[in-house]
Amino acid sequence: DARVTQTPRHKVTEMGQEVTMRCQPILGHNTVFWYRQTMMQGLELLAYFRNRAPLDDSGMPKDRFSAEMPDATLATLKIQPSEPRDSAVYFCASGLVRASGRAGNEQFFGPGTRLTVL
Amino acid sequence: GNSVTQMEGPVTLSEEAFLTINCTYTATGYPSLFWYVQYPGEGLQLLLKATKADDKGSNKGFEATYRKETTSFHLEKGSVQVSDSAVYFCALSDQGAGGFKTIFGAGTRLFVKA
């Protein structure tokens, strides 16, 4: 049963600390997304990758957030330094875009990392 | 730009009641439309989708029809169960970025009472 995995599931840290969240996309998927979910803002797209290359990270605060894909089986989202306003649930999702590039492709979400910054 | 508007929640229903969650969209071109569901403590998962006008997506008793003339994709279920309590997200994706960048609505929380 293929699924997206994320670690850690929960993280509590103090303001100013570095936070790294990890995601393992479904094997064979070529597109990876990072989302942030809060009660106030809902679901926000932070960044996404195609074949490990960043395509769009315009939703991400550049001064403190960074996203990478060191290899096809790992995506990371890092916050340095963290702030209380970063408290949210962070979701990774993956999907497969076929050569035709047609719309209608499903995204598979991981269970999320619940981050609390004190 | 593209956008999705769905009815505000929460929606509270008794078991076996009829459910409608309204969703309208704004898009250039011919987007695909989706409903995702999020159960407590989990990520979103696809419930159903439609890729062209007049298509009907269906799954687990839920249905939605892609209406281009009214730019709508309303979610319906004839008889809800307690286990349907969740947050429902309407979404669209367009041809940009190979048809993969997805715009999500704000979500509608559904409570079903026994």
Q: Could you give a quick summary of the protein structure above?
A:
The complex is a heterodimer of chains A (118) and B (114). Chain A is mostly beta strands.
The count of β-strands of chain B is 12
State the helicity of chain B in percent bands: under 10%
> Which term fits the overall shape of chain B?
globular
Distance between the termini of chain A: 36 Å
Radius of gyration of chain B: 14 Å
Instruction: Please describe the biggest sheet of chain B, giving its number of strands, its sense, and whether it closes into a barrel.
Output: 6 strands, mixed
Indicate the proportion of strand residues of chain A.
over 45%
Number of helices of chain A: 0
The proportion of strand residues of chain B reads over 45%
Mean pLDDT of chain A: 92
The tally of helices of chain B reads 1
What letter string, H or E per element, gives the SSE order of chain B? EEEEEEEEEEHEE
Give the helices and strands of chain A as they follow along the chain: EEEEEEEEEEE
Assembly context of the chains: heterodimer
Mean pLDDT of chain B: 92
Residues in helix, % of chain A: under 10%
How large is the radius of gyration of chain A? 14 Å
Structural class of chain A comes to mainly beta
Most extensive protein-chain contact, per-chain counts: A-B, 25 and 25 residues
Shape of chain A: globular
- The total strand number of chain A stands at 11
Description:
The complex is a heterodimer of chains A (118) and B (114). Chain A has 118 residues and is an all-beta fold. Chain A is built from no helices and 11 strands. Chain A has strands at residues 5-7, 10-13, 19-24, 31-38, 42-50, 53-56, 65-71, 74-79, 88-95, 108-109, 113-117. In chain A, strands 2, 4, 5, 6, 9, 10 and 11 form a 7-stranded mixed sheet that branches. In chain A, a hairpin with a 2-residue loop joins strand 7 and strand 8 (74-79). Chain B is mainly beta. Chain B contains 1 helix and 12 strands; from the N terminus they run ββββββββββαββ. In chain B, the strands form 3 sheets. In chain B, strands 2, 5, 6, 10, 11 and 12 form a 6-stranded mixed sheet that branches. Chain B has a 4-stranded antiparallel sheet with strand order 3-9-8-7, with no helix packed on it. The mean pLDDT of chain B is 92. Chain A binds chain B through residues 4, 31, 42-43, 45, 48, 50, 55-56, 91, 93, 95, 97, 101-112, and chain B through 30-32, 34, 41-46, 49, 51, 89, 93-95, 97-102, 104, 106-107.
